[in-house]
Every structure is written in structure tokens, then in C-alpha cells.
Design a protein that fits this description.
Chain lengths: 219, 469
């Protein structure tokens, strides 16, 4: 078997692959079966609506032009989908993660540890866990910053965060003007304000005190 | 394999077996993508140190080019270069040509179209949210067909060859099964079937299997082929190569979830992935030992023969990454280094330090034979080696250290800016190391250009040490 073609193809090639697939992929799929997947419409919640209304108040003209007269579940859901596409297409997820680990004080910095149910919706197809944090985790971002902060930040991060290495995204705005977000800008802000809006306590702020400066004296 | 004995056999002639032109075309395409990939990497590196000269051009956004960087190296450089190399190795090992030369060329052009449209799709913002598989969803099925056609083209010579087969072919055979399966699993299931956490588990399997079941078997298969040829002696232990192959086949597919430790993925699956990962390091050790014992007694050749030096440097790096893997995969270590530049350093050592260097070594060995000319400049061959090998190792050390710092800054709850500002010197060194690697490839490409435009040598090139077999 170990050197025959059939053994290599069927046992090594197919068999071991299927074994791994069943144990590592089918098992979690079955385990989460009882947790129905929610649609974008279903995940629109009051916290998010509040933020979108704020968007409408701040940017009335662009909002009317790109979204509609007033926010509804339908057009907010459409914005979430669009916002997610931009988040993926711009590679935000290669610099920002979307899960809080139960270690390294992460729940102190950002909020509650990630749970499976939070990811069981169509906006996590494929899931946006992420593998690298150049910038902070965003899964508890909802409400931590105001919409105009985000607008200015996307337009030119260094304006609000002087040493930020985050790229600028002027194409989310008309006329290169941070007060005129276009469809993409509005959709992305909606998406960012959604992240974590489903939690019982939202927004979550960093609940830690900065370390006091300790003076080290030479012995 | 000794060429003298081969000639005595009534064996098919090289020119009837190998289509050298397609090998060369694959190599040149691969190097083009290496160039593109490195430009993307440099752009991102400059962005991080606040020196990105381009602001406000959507199609040149560093976030998008970061995805071009990884996809161009995986599907553009590695895949093309591997395809070139197996167009050489498989017919020579089986004494049979590929099924159809026409199909070979069709696949060649189809694959370039796939990679180019992947790049274009990413540039215009249509990436898929799957790491290492950002190929836009509308290209995925086409790429899968391409992979299946490869199997159709290459399996017949392997299956028709009689008698026991050499370890290289075991790796290739299994790879032809694994690659389409991996590709279909990763690109379709998290997108269309399983959302959220379970899809995340599969995305982890995909990231890992792409390296482990596509790149690694091709890489080691070709090492088992080229190293004994250059050293002119057989591999030390056939038995150990069996252990290596079957160990990889069993343990590699079980590890993917280790990319997402401490996520909501069920903990027992995470433990399983950790154990499988630690287990494979022992397998890796047997493979590396096998190659180093084979080298025993011929060590001087490493000094003289650049392709061989590329191969063995790659193997040393391979051992380092795998050893690193066994540590960093533990949950204790993950607490600290996950999400940090440590992982980025690890990935560069694997993808560039090991597999790209092996392929660059093969190119250094094969190109003079194909174009029937000695290398234009031996000095440039050396520069290519040293800039690549040292550049990537400096990058690896630098990013590894950066990762440890970042991990501690984050865990100690300092403001985020502290970790960003503190990374600056590391990112600067990384940029310099990256530019050195880029410079190495420029030497190589220039050398190829001058070699190809020089006069053809009458006999097979052999006077030159870089190409001495």
C-alpha cells in the first residue's frame, strides 16, 4: 500500500483528506446547525438604526442622494452588504481583526470575548476573523467613535490620529471632501457602526486605566 | 541517476520527452509575477513607514496591493514556476511525455489569464474575503477547471509508467488529488455553504492546505528529484522518504484550525490542530535528516554550486520555520504572538526563504540548459543568491522580534499608538530587507536577459560552476 499508486492516490490523496475534512470541517458545521443563519435584514438593530439616523442628520444631501429619504430596514441592510464588500475589497481585514480572544487582556481593551452566535449571519460569509492586527480589533467598534470621526479618519487618518499608518481613502468621498461621503463612504460607516451593535452593552469603551508612569531608581 | 547509464538504456531521448520551451515560458511568467508581487510588498512596507508616495489613487491602494502581493506570489510565481519545473521532471522521471503538448500550452495561457484577471479583480476592488484565496468569486470555478486539466495532462505519464515509483512521483500524484479538493473546499464552502465560525474553520484548512498540500509536496518532490541529480548519488534512505511522505499526508490536512486559535471554533478542534502540528515537526525532521545525510561527504559542493546552495539554504530555513511552528502553535505562545508581525515573518520565511528559493535554484540550474548558454555573469548569480538568502532571513528575524514587542505592548494594555510607533524601526528594517530581496531578483532577471541575448554555446553548458551538474 505504501508505495503503490492506488494506495497513494486513494489512501494518501483522498482518504486522509476526507478524514481531515470530516473531523475539522463537517463536525463544526453540524455543531452549529441549530444556530440559524441570519440575513442582513435580521441583523439590523436599534443601535445601528440610531447611528444611521445620525448619518442622515449629518450628511443630509449625500444620504438622500445615495441611500434614500430615510433609513429603513431594507436600505440599511443593503448598505451593510455593500459596506462589507468594501471592507473586503479594500483589504481592511488584513490590518484589522474581528474577534476578541479570552487571553492577553483583550476583553479589557475591547469588550466581551467573541461568541459563535455573533458570526452566524450572511455578513460573515466568509467570516472576517482576520489574522493580523496592524490597527485595533473592530468587532466592538460600534458607537465608540462618531460618524464624523470616521469620515475624517477614512479621508485622511493622520488628521485625527497623527502617526497612523492606515491608508487614506479619499475615494469614499465626493469632491475629496470629508463632509461629502459618497455611497461607499456611507455604506462603510454603516458597516463599521454595526460591528458590535448587537451586544447587550454597546458601545463598549476601554475599561482600563493607562499604566501610571513608574520611575525606576538606580539601586 | 547517472547520465552514462541512461544513455546505455534504450530510453527515450530528452528532446522527445521534455518541451523545453514551455518550461522556459513558465519560468519567465513566474518571474514577471515575482516582480509584481514584490512591488506590492514594497508599497505596503512604505505605507507602514509613512513613505507611501502614492496617495488617493484608488487602484494603487496599499490594502489592495497587499492582496496582489500574496496572490501573485502563490498563483503567479509559485504555481507557474512549479508547473515549469514539473514539465521538466515528470517526463524525465516517467520516460513518458505529458498527455498533450497542445493541452500544456492551453493550460499555460489559461493560467496566465486566470492570474491576470485575479490581479485585475483585486485592483478594482472585487476581492473575495478568503485569505490566500482573494481571487474574485467569478474566477474561482475557472481556476478549478484549470487545476483539473493539469491533472488530466500530467497523470497519464505517471499512471502509465511501470514498476515501483520514486518518492517524487508519490508527492506529485497526491498533490494532483489534493489541490483541486483544497481549492474547491476553501473557495466554495465558506462562501456559499457554511457561514461564520464553521466557515472560519474551513478557511483555516484552506490557508494551510494550500501551503501543505499544494506547495509543499511540489517543493519536496522536486528536491528529491534535483538534489540527487546534482550530487550524483541517490537519496540516503528510501525508508525515511516513506515516513516523510505518509507523515505529511496524514498530519498536514489536520492542522488548518491552528490559524484561528482562541476563536469561537470549538476548543477540542483547536487542541487537535495543535497536536497534529507538533506531530508533523517530527516528520519534517526525518526528511531534513535524510537530505543532510545524503549531502554528507559532498559538502564542498554547496560552496561551488549555486543551485545546490539555494536548495540546502531553503532546507535549513524549512527546518527553522517548522521548529518555530512547533512552538508558536502552542496556545501559550499564541497568546503573545498571534496577530503580530511574528506571523508575517514566519510566512515570508516559508514562502520566500524556502519555496521561492528552491524554485530560483531550479531556474538557476535549468535556464542555462534550456537556452544552451552559460550564465552571462557568475557574479550576478552569486548576488542573486546572497541578496535573497540574507534579505529574507533579516526580514524574518526583524519581524519575529517586532512581533514579540507588539504582543507585549498589546497585552500590557498600552495605548494602540504605542505599538504602532514602536514598530516603526522594525518596519524600516523590513523595508530595507525587502528592497535587498527585490534587488536580488533584479540581478537575476538582468542576468537572464543578458544570457539569453548572448551567443549560444556549442556544447551543453558545463564550464560554469553555477550550472555544473
Amino acid at each position: 500500500m505504501f508505495e503503490s499508486k492506488a494506495g497513494i492516490l486513494l489512501v494518501g490523496g483522498l482518504g486522509f483528506f476526507v478524514f481531515a475534512f470530516v473531523s475539522n470541517a463537517v463536525v463544526p458545521i453540524l455543531m452549529y446547525q441549530h444556530m440559524p443563519e441570519q440575513t442582513a435584514e435580521q441583523v439590523v438593530n436599534a443601535n445601528l438604526m440610531y447611528q444611521v439616523e445620525d448619518l442622515q442628520r449629518r450628511y443630509p444631501e449625500p444620504f438622500k442622494k445615495y441611500v434614500g429619504e430615510k433609513p429603513t430596514t431594507e436600505n440599511v441592510a443593503a448598505m451593510l452588504r455593500h459596506g462589507r464588500d468594501i471592507y473586503v475589497g479594500e483589504g481592511c481585514w488584513h490590518c484589522h481583526s474581528q474577534y476578541i480572544r479570552p487571553v492577553s487582556n483583550e476583553s479589557k481593551r475591547w469588550g466581551p470575548v467573541a461568541r459563535s452566535v455573533e458570526y452566524q449571519n450572511e455578513l460573515q460569509r466568509p467570516v472576517m476573523f482576520g489574522t493580523r492586527r496592524v490597527g485595533p480589533d473592530l468587532s466592538r467598534e460600534s458607537g465608540r467613535r462618531s460618524n464624523d470621526w470616521h469620515a475624517v479618519h477614512f479621508h485622511h487618518p493622520k488628521t485625527v490620529s497623527p502617526n497612523s499608518p492606515m491608508p487614506a481613502y479619499p475615494w469614499f468621498f465626493d469632491n475629496d471632501n470629508p463632509s461629502e461621503p459618497n455611497r461607499r463612504g456611507l455604506a462603510l460607516m454603516t458597516y463599521i457602526q454595526w460591528l458590535g451593535s448587537w451586544l447587550e452593552v454597546s458601545p463598549t469603551y476601554e475599561n482600563y486605566q493607562p499604566l501610571p508612569d513608574v520611575e525606576v531608581k538606580a539601586p | 541517476m547517472n547520465s552514462a547509464t541512461l544513455e546505455n538504456l534504450d530510453a527515450p531521448k530528452h528532446k522527445d520527452l521534455v518541451n523545453e520551451k514551455i518550461v522556459l515560458w513558465y519560468f519567465l511568467a513566474a518571474l514577471t509575477y515575482m516582480f509584481i508581487s514584490m512591488l506590492g510588498g514594497i508599497l505596503m512596507a512604505m505605507q507602514l513607514v509613512h513613505h507611501n508616495p502614492i496617495r488617493g489613487i484608488e487602484w494603487l491602494s496599499p490594502g489592495r496591493w497587499r492582496m496582489i502581493h500574496t496572490n501573485a506570489i502563490a498563483y503567479g510565481f509559485l504555481a507557474n514556476a512549479f508547473l515549469g519545473a514539473i514539465h521538466w521532471a515528470i517526463p524525465r522521471l516517467t520516460f513518458r511525455p505529458v498527455l498533450s503538448v497542445f493541452l500544456s500550452w492551453a493550460i499555460f495561457f489559461a493560467w496566465q489569464a486566470i492570474v491576470l484577471s485575479t490581479a485585475v479583480g483585486i485592483i478594482i476592488g472585487q476581492a473575495q474575503g478568503l485569505e490566500w484565496g482573494e481571487t474574485p468569486v467569478w474566477i474561482d470555478p475557472v481556476a478549478l477547471v484549470g487545476l483539473l486539466l493539469l491533472m488530466v495532462n500530467f497523470m497519464p505519464p505517471i499512471l502509465r509508467a511501470k514498476g515501483p515509483q520514486y518518492v517524487t512521483l508519490w508527492y506529485f500524484m497526491a498533490m494532483f488529488v489534493w489541490t483541486p479538493l483544497t481549492y474547491a473546499m476553501g473557495n466554495f464552502i465558506p462562501q456559499y455553504i457554511a457561514p461564520g465560525t464553521s466557515g472560519g474553520a474551513i478557511a483555516g484548512l484552506f490557508i494551510h492546505d494550500l501551503v501543505g498540500l499544494f506547495v509543499t509536496p511540489l517543493g519536496w518532490g522536486l528536491m528529491y528529484y534535483f538534489v540527487p541529480i546534482i550530487l550524483k548519488k541517490p537519496i540516503w534512505s528510501h525508508g525515511l522518504s516513506l515516513v516523510g511522505f505518509w507523515g505529511l499526508a496524514f498530519f498536514y490536512p489536520l492542522q488548518g484550525i491552528h490559524h484561528f486559535l482562541y476563536t469561537p471554533i470549538p476548543m477540542f478542534l483547536q487542541y487537535g490542530a495543535v497536536i497534529a502540528t507538533v506531530a508533523i515537526e517530527f516528520v519534517v525532521a526525518t526528511v531534513v535528516i535524510n537530505f543532510f545525510v545524503t549531502l554528507w561527504g559532498s559538502g564542498r559542493m554547496i560552496v561551488q554550486n549555486v543551485p545546490l546552495r539555494f536548495f540546502y539554504t531553503g532546507m535549513v530555513y524549512y527546518f527553522i520555520t517548522c521548529f518555530q511552528c512547533a512552538m508558536q502553535v502552542t496556545l501559550t505562545f499564541q497568546e503573545l504572538i498571534h496577530f503580530s508581525d511574528w506571523v508575517v515573518g514566519h510566512a515570508h520565511l516559508v514562502m520566500f526563504g524556502v519555496f521561492s528559493q528552491w524554485l530560483l535554484g531550479m531556474m538557476t540550474y535549468l535556464i542555462p540548459r534550456i537556452v544552451k548558454r552559460d550564465w552571462y555573469s557568475q557574479t550576478l548569480v552569486e548576488w542573486h543568491f546572497w541578496l535573497s538568502a540574507v534579505g529574507v532571513f533579516v526580514m524574518f528575524l526583524d519581524l519575529g522580534l517586532a512581533g514579540v514587542f507588539q504582543g507585549y505592548w498589546w497585552a500590557s494594555l498600552q495605548s494602540w499608538d504605542v505599538s504602532v510607533d514602536g514598530s516603526y524601526p522594525f518596519w524600516m528594517i523590513r523595508l530595507v530587507a525587502g528592497l535587498a530581496m527585490f534587488g536580488g531578483q533584479c540581478c537575476f532577471v538582468y542576468n537572464i536577459y543578458r544570457t539569453m541575448s548572448g551567443p549560444q554555446t556549442e556544447t551543453a553548458p558545463s564550464g560554469n560552476l553555477a550550472t555544473a551538474s
